[in-house]
Structure formats: structure tokens, C-alpha cells
Design brief:
- This protein is an alpha+beta fold.
- It has a single domain, classed as Jann2411-like domain (Jann2411-like fold), CATH 1.10.3300.
- The chain is built from six helices and nine strands, in the order E-E-H-E-E-H-E-H-H-E-E-H-E-E-H.
- The strands form four sheets. A three-stranded mixed beta sheet has the order 5-7-6, covered by helices on one side.
- Strand 3 (about 35) and strand 4 (about 40-45) form a beta hairpin.
- The longest helix is centred in the middle third of the chain and has 22 residues, at about 70-90.
- This is Zinc finger CGNR domain-containing protein.
């Protein structure tokens, strides 16, 4: 299976208003619902056009399509199925049939095909639905493969971002050292300074 994203997180973590800290497209898709651990959430996939924006920001060559409410619903369903399954894997709990069915059905649809671009690099090109199918297939490979044990949830206060821990030691705690990791270090430093 072709990897959808590189295993090393992109240094440009925020693109077109979306966070890309997961190190994997399927985990990055789950970050399109922000504030999961807070009283109020914000859905960054608010309109069908947002699905196209996310795909393009994720680095996919998304063919011009007229997005509709079905595409939006499919993207949201896929996002929540991946999130549910990842969280259940983290908790070592049984994977719910409903989330597995959504993921498997999406992964079974026609997917975007890889092609060689003029610059000699591989790219994935297709319409939005076929690119979401590719994300679903990669989610199946991740959640059902040996890297599933490397999925983590950020330990930052109030952060629910999922990420793939590719560190050598396997003990990464933050979705981003420049965001949550830095906030934790600053808070710990202040706390140490305040002690008599």
C-alpha cells in the first residue's frame, strides 16, 4: 500500500486553517473537529468546500469537482470512524462494528490512482471521494497494522489531536513540540520558579 503521507511530520503544521500534526493523513483528518475535550467543539469541515480545502492542504491533487452534502457527510463519517477506532485501540477496547463498517465500506470504494508527475515524483490524483477512499485505506493499514501501537493522543492540556509516534524511543507525548510541548515546558518552568 502506498503511504498517503510521509512518516515524518511536516514542519508546516498549519495549512489553510487545518492542523497537520498527526504524521498520517487519517489522523490529520480527525483533527478537523477541534475542541474534542472541551465543552464546545468546532467543525472545520463546515461546508462541502472545506473537504476540498482539507484535501488540497493535505497535499492531494484534488481534481475540480463540485462538492456536495454527500461528500461532506462522507468525510465527517470517515473522520469520526477513524477517531473512534483509534481511541478504542489506545484504550485496548473492542472496536465497534459501526465504526469498522464505515471505515471498511469507504475503503472498498474506488480510490485515486498514483501517477508520475512531470517532475518525476509520485502524486495521487483523483476527485475528492476517491481521495477520501485512499485516506480510508491508509487508516485500515494503520489501525490494523503493526504501527497501530504507535498511535498516541496528545497529552497537552485540552488537546485531543491523535498522532503517529515515529520517535525512536516511542515515548513522544505531544502533537507538536512548538505548540503543546512548548506550552507544557513553559508551565512547568513557571511552576518551578514559583516554588519557594
Amino acid at each position: 500500500m502506498l503511504p498517503v503521507t510521509a512518516s515524518v511530520p511536516d514542519p508546516e503544521e498549519v495549512r489553510d486553517g487545518f492542523r497537520f500534526r498527526g504524521g498520517h493523513a487519517a489522523l490529520d483528518l480527525t483533527a478537523t473537529l477541534t475542541g474534542r475535550l472541551k465543552e464546545t467543539q468546532r467543525d472545520l469541515l463546515a461546508q462541502p468546500e472545506d473537504v476540498l480545502r482539507w484535501l488540497r492542504a493535505a497535499g492531494f491533487d484534488c481534481a475540480a469537482t463540485a462538492p456536495d452534502d454527500r461528500l461532506l457527510a462522507a468525510a465527517r463519517q470517515l473522520r469520526e470512524a477513524v477517531y473512534t477506532l483509534a481511541m478504542r485501540r489506545l484504550a485496548e477496547q473492542t472496536l465497534p462494528a459501526s465504526a469498522r463498517t464505515i471505515l471498511n465500506n469507504t475503503a472498498g470504494l474506488p480510490a485515486a490512482a498514483p501517477e508520475i508527475a512531470a517532475d518525476g515524483r509520485m502524486r495521487l490524483r483523483g476527485d475528492a471521494a476517491s481521495l477520501l477512499t485512499l485516506v480510508a485505506r491508509e487508516a485500515v493499514s494503520l489501525l490494523g497494522g503493526e504501527m497501530a501501537d504507535r498511535i498516541r493522543q496528545c497529552e497537552g492540556d485540552g488537546c485531543a489531536i491523535l498522532f503517529l509516534d515515529t520517535s525512536r524511543s516511542g515515548d513522544r507525548r505531544w502533537c507538536s513540540m512548538t505548540a503543546c510541548g512548548n506550552r507544557h515546558k513553559v508551565a512547568a518552568f513557571r511552576q518551578r520558579r514559583e516554588k519557594p
